[in-house]
Fold this sequence. Notes:
Layout: E1 2-5, H1 12-23, E2 28-32, H2 38-43, E3 46-48, H3 54-63, E4 68-71, H4 77-82, H5 84-104, E5 108-114, H6 138-157, E6 160-166, E7 168-170, H7 183-193, E8 196-199, E9 207-211, H8 212-224, E10 234-236, E11 240-242, H9 244-251, E12 259-262, H10 266-273, H11 282-288, H12 296-307, H13 312-316
Parallel strand pairs: 1-2, 1-4, 2-3, 4-5, 5-6, 6-10, 7-9, 8-12
Antiparallel strand pairs: 9-11
Helix pairs in contact: 1-8, 3-5, 5-6, 7-9
The structure holds (3R)-3-hydroxy-L-norvaline.
Amino acid sequence: RVLITGGLGQLGVGLAKLLRKRFGKNNVILSDIRKPADNVFYSGPFIFADILDYKNLREIVVNNRITWLFHYSALLSAVGEANVPLARAVNITGLHNILDIAAEHNLRLFVPSTIGAFGPTSPRDPTPDLCIQRPRTIYGVSKVHAELMGEYYHCRYGLDFRCLRYPGIISADSQPGGGTTDYAVQIFHDAIKTGKFKCYLRPDTRLPMMYIDDCLKATLEVMDAPAEALTMRTYNISAMSFTPEELAQEVQKYVPELQMTYNVDQVRQAIADSWPMNFDDSNARRDWGWKHDYDLPELVTTMFSYLGSDSRIAQAN
Ligand code: VAH
């Protein structure tokens, strides 16, 4: 049985859909500290759980005979900077709870890391798997901690810990949770709704990005990989890198009237400027045959095929 923490976030619902196809609807349990919309209950089991409640988590794992755990509970980069004490509690103490339970009950544990686990002193173009990691956000610090602790528990206690560093993830049917890359999702909705988009990053800010289907595919592949194939426990995965300007040009192929304006948010610009520009994921491609399917044109085509590209403006005129 599978448990997904932080299951109501941008990635959890899509991951549950994929896993339920594979393992059966009732063998994949979503949990989160938020009350879900009714339809979430219809698509499979949901349990309200606080990642800081160790005893309750342990009961959930034992009573539901959990064998795989995907740990998505976290405060992302921008929201974490706005509430460091909560980010430290959820991203670090919450992670400790999960590590102890996973080691105690011999779970296969997936914890996502991020391009945000690197900082201004890391090589940025490209950023390899192994290099200096001195991130400047509580989110990044907590994710480096998760990588180091997961690898320690793997070496010391034999925990089957697996970790992928995600780029900014773009999805059509779910909202990102307060990160720095969220603009790349919002632009699609605003282009269709109003034909206007105000971007909080400079036009030339290059960041690694990935379509959600590639992200979920990589996550399942690394969890399925035979242990002997994994020369590492934490891998970069990459698909594309783009700037707001490049994304806008691609979006304007569908919404020509899109007006892009820039209203830079210094906090998120500083975070983005400290992150990788391009990701080197050669280890993942070598060890378990990782390869992405969606480049920028395919991403934009897929997003508009999902959201519909006949902008309200065109309809209104
Ligand atoms: C964020 N979307 O912006 C998340 C992610 C790679 C970025 O970690 O914080």
